[in-house]
Specification:
Number of domains of chain A: 2
Strand order of the largest sheet of chain A: 1-2-10-15-14-11-12
Largest sheet of chain A: 7 strands, mixed
CATH topology of the largest domain in chain A: Peroxisomal Thiolase, Chain A, domain 1
CATH architecture of the largest domain in chain A: 3-Layer(aba) Sandwich
Helix content of chain A: 25-40%
Chains: A alpha/beta, B mainly alpha, C mainly alpha
Order of helices and strands of chain C: HHHHHH
Number of helices of chain A: 10
Low-confidence stretches of chain C: none
Shape of chain A: globular
Structural class of chain A: alpha/beta
Low-confidence stretches of chain A: 340-344
Distance between the termini of chain A: 11 Å
Oligomer: heterotrimer
Mean pLDDT of chain A: 95
Number of helices of chain C: 6
Largest sheet of chain C: none
Distance between the termini of chain C: 41 Å
């Protein structure tokens, strides 16, 4: 067990592994290429006639419940719950905590909240401050549309770079020790980067510089290159954002090759499902990791994965007042070890 | 200097502009023409029907508008109007049916926030600015004409 | 022939609006406000009347027609009521449409639910 700061905001962590993950998606996510990797698919965006905000809350509640169940533990074994969502005052995460009654650390870094939670959870576990932590993030398409864009039935054309907020949740039970084959071995917390983007319909471009900053710092701190990982996934840069990150990387001597992809870009059939830039939202990286990515890691197909969730930290108010969009990205690197293997 | 105003940021915004996919303007324009034209044609048919009852074309304008607003509200309620706009763009937004859509959509959506601050207030999310500036512009235009010609 | 011109003129007004939307950073709400104001201005200088006579619903159904209606209403009211007509004429002329929109909007909001 142990945690060492190896550079500013970068930490090497020991003996933190993933006991279980759970991913639940909406109907559109179910029809996407990753549909089979979700544990459950909701038949409708609607949830028993409740409001979309209540539906989002039910989604994260279901996801957390399922993750705890899959871990073989009970709620009493969970020392701490942390996570977040996109709604004002992170109401989904906060209200869901009324039910589980475990100590809560509500987090916010927009769509980057999932790796913020994984990273923070890993630090606490490695530092012997807890034995098991549940990390979850959620988003609901309709609830996000209501808050950030237009009313659902108001007709308007989406621009080609507009993202589609995913209806999805991902929950992970992190535990200390080496009992499970997938582990977190390093964490880099992001800095807020703002390169002056003002277009809320092109958040991929706004977030790409933040992703690059965190990736560069993570690689430098851990002494690795992009090619040392079997897969490098950003959260929700989408088509436009990955293009910008690849271009920016080239300027800085980083080669984003076939190993690199983006959770938002693979969540849907981009053309057929008419999602333009791809998926976004805290539930995008959380759902894609907890379903698809973690399965490839757990099966041993990948040995090393670098996950960088990206978040645009604006609000409708700051946008209407003409301010640019500050962004953040948090990186977590994960390793696969043969079952029962030691950390040495 | 703040990061967002730095030369690096400016260079990045240039790169974004260069990389951005182009909006399908030609396609949008063609669809806007067809959808807008079609809605106006339907309007003309309704107006002609009213005129067949003996109304002048000017007198028939108002009931035509009412019918079209009703149709726009109904299609919004059924969840179809946003599908029409997705392809038709301003061809579906600019006609009065689009104005109805802009009133009904937010009102429907904010039903859960209550009848007063939800439905009542949100009816005017988009319609409010249109009324405010439409009425103000008409007043100014009328006033200028009144001052210049003595009649508005 | 009015039918053909209604289609063409109405379509062209929408094309101009689409170009404004695609080539500027305006939102659809901005475009609607712009066009209602333009309708009032062109109504004021007497041009929009010709378009209405020529294209019928092609000119009255798109939103500039609303601005035109407001200005025409003011003109009519000033003739009978004098200067007070500047305040009453616009809404009087547009009363049918506005009241219909409010009533239908309220009814739809009570009956329907937004769909995915």
């Amino acid at each position: 067990m142990g945690v060492t700061q190896i550079a500013l905001g970068s930490y090497r962590v020991m003996d933190v592994c993933i006991a279980a993950t759970a991913a639940i998606g909406g109907p559109k996510e179910g029809k996407g290429p990753l549909g089979p990797y979700f544990d459950e698919i909701w038949p409708s965006e609607d949830h028993k006639g409740t409001s979309f905000e209540q539906a989002e809350r039910a989604l994260i509640e279901d996801g957390m419940e399922l993750a705890v169940k899959k871990s073989g533990m009970s709620w009493e074994d969970i020392d701490l719950v942390m996570g977040g969502d996109l709604l004002d005052q992170i109401v989904s995460t906060n209200f869901a905590a009324r039910r589980h009654q475990r100590p809560l650390l509500g987090l916010f870094s927009a769509c980057a909240v999932f790796t913020q939670g994984l990273g923070l959870g890993a630090l606490l576990l490695a530092g012997n401050s807890a034995r098991s932590i549940l990390v979850a993030a959620v988003s609901h398409h309709m609830a996000a549309e209501r808050q950030f864009r237009f009313p659902i039935e108001l007709g308007y054309q989406r621009t080609p770079t507009a993202a589609w907020t995913a209806t999805a949740t991902g929950a992970v039970v992190l535990v200390s020790g080496t009992k499970h084959p997938t582990a977190i071995d390093a964490v880099t917390m992001g800095r807020v980067i703002d390169f002056g983007s003002k277009n809320p319909n092109d958040m991929g471009s706004a977030m790409a510089p933040a992703a690059l900053d965190t990736i560069q710092r993570h690689l430098e701190a851990t002494g690795t290159t992009l090619q040392d990982y079997d897969a490098v996934y950003t959260g929700d840069l989408g088509v436009m954002g990955t293009k910008m990150l690849t271009l920016l990387g080239k300027e800085h001597g980083l080669i984003f090759d076939y190993r690199f992809n983006d959770c938002g870009q693979i969540l849907y059939h981009l053309k057929e499902q008419d999602v333009h830039n791809g998926g976004s939202g805290p539930g995008c990286s959380a759902g894609v990791f907890s379903g698809y990515l973690h399965q490839r890691l757990e099966s041993g197909e990948w040995r090393r994965l670098l996950l960088i969730a990206t978040g645009a930290l604006f609000s409708p108010t700051t946008y209407q007042q003409g301010e640019s969009i500050p962004c953040i990205a948090h990186a977590v690197s994960l390793v696969y070890r043969d079952r029962g293997g030691s950390s040495s | 200097m703040h990061q967002e105003d730095s030369d690096q940021a400016k260079a990045y915004q240039q790169l974004v502009k260069k990389t951005q996919p182009k909006k399908p303007i030609l396609k949008n324009v063609v669809w806007a023409f067809l959808y807008g034209g079609m809605i106006c044609l339907v309007g003309q048919c309704i107006q002609t029907a009213f005129m067949a009852t003996g109304m002048t074309s000017q007198a028939a304008t108002s009931p035509t508008t009412v019918v079209l607003i009703g149709v726009g509200a109904l299609l919004t309620g059924l969840g179809w109007y946003d599908q029409i706009t997705k392809r038709g763009g301003m061809g579906a937004t600019l006609p009065i049916t689009g104005f109805a859509n802009a009133m009904v959509a937010p009102a429907m959506e904010f039903r859960r926030e209550g009848l007063v601050m939800g439905v009542g207030a949100k009816l005017f999310t988009v319609a409010g600015p249109v009324l405010v500036y439409g009425l103000s512009a008409a007043f100014v235009v009328g006033l200028v004409r009144y001052l210049v010609t003595g009649v508005a | 022939m009015t039918f053909v011109w209604a289609f063409i003129v109405g379509g062209l007004l929408c094309v101009i609006a689409q170009l404004v939307l695609d080539l500027t950073s305006f939102t659809p709400a901005h475009v609607l406000v712009l066009f209602v104001v333009l309708g009032a201005l062109f109504g004021g200088v007497g041009l929009y009347r010709h378009l209405v006579a020529f294209a019928g619903a092609g000119a009255t159904v798109p939103l500039p027609g609303f601005g035109y209606t407001l200005v025409e209403g003011i003109a009519a009211a000033v003739k009978t009521k004098g200067i007070l007509g500047l305040l009453t004429g616009g809404l009087t002329a547009a009363a049918g449409g506005i009241k219909a929109a409010v009533l239908f909007g309220l009814a739809a909001a009570l009956i329907f639910k937004p769909k995915a």
